Amino acid sequence: MSPSTDPPSEESTCHVSVLPDEIVQWVADCQPRVVIDGTFGGGGHARRLLDVVPADGLVIGLDRDPAVLARVESQPPTERLTVFLGSYEQAGEAMKRCDVKAADAMVLDLGLSSDQLADRNRGFSFQNDGPLDLRFDPESGVPASEWLSRRSEKEIADAIYQYGEERASRRIAREIVGRQRERRPVQTVNDLVEICRRCVRRGKHHDIHPATRTFQALRIAVNEELEILKRTLQIAPQWLSPGGRLAVISFHSLEDRLVKTAFRDDPRWNVLTRKPIRPGDAETQANPRARSAKLRVAERATS
Ligand SMILES: C[S@@+](CC[C@H](N)C(=O)[O-])C[C@H]1O[C@@H](n2cnc3c(N)ncnc32)[C@H](O)[C@@H]1O
Question: Where is this region: Disordered (predicted)?
């Protein structure tokens, strides 16, 4: 993990934070001195969180994406913010590096940012052709194209079904592996979009693009998103002070289910949001990305 103490710039990111007022309110209520923003992204939440920590307080940011760190480093530094390149499951290590024993709140805003979606070289947007990469950290692990070439047809189908809830998963996996046999493996966004178009029957209302579920599934698999979230929910109470809060914004049912059950079934958590908090109409109109967001908050039990 490499730290940077430079602040985020509003101008250099196109990401609009989701549920910013709600995040600030839930965090501010516990009067935090140290807050961890585990998914720093464009720094929108972190910027708002700096307003609720005292003059001797600290916001510790983490993100897996080196482009986030590069953006932070191009800005003039600020004392109360330190951003690390690394996964949010390494928050304990980041705290040690900042000489912090316990945090008072942690925020996770899962998924990807609009900056990542807009970058053609990352493969996140099936509207733009480019290499099929899909990694949050393009400097570690393997790109999605290589992930596909190393898996069996069944493993690919299972991942697309499990992480994308895509009914055409078997057909899609068969075509992906078929192309590999013909020595023209799936390497670009368009290669995979073409396959999805052929395999996925569009619903009556044509509500989502035929590649949406498959791209979501591969992104989750390549980045091991659910495994990391599960491990973090398990370890996070150790990082928080008694009464410290964890606020998680998720964007699909698989993530939300993990958060809901971890909060409900682990006696170290007190659930503060009986039902998930959803963005209002004004927010979803201004920021359509917010439509599927769900925020859940729990606090570390005091005994
Ligand atoms: C939705 S964006 C966060 C936006 C941010 N809250 C804001 O207001 O600008 C999600 C970010 O989480 C990062 N990310 C995804 N998985 C991560 C992980 N395991 N650890 C750290 N960052 C992660 C992505 O690289 C992306 O930058």
Answer: 276-303
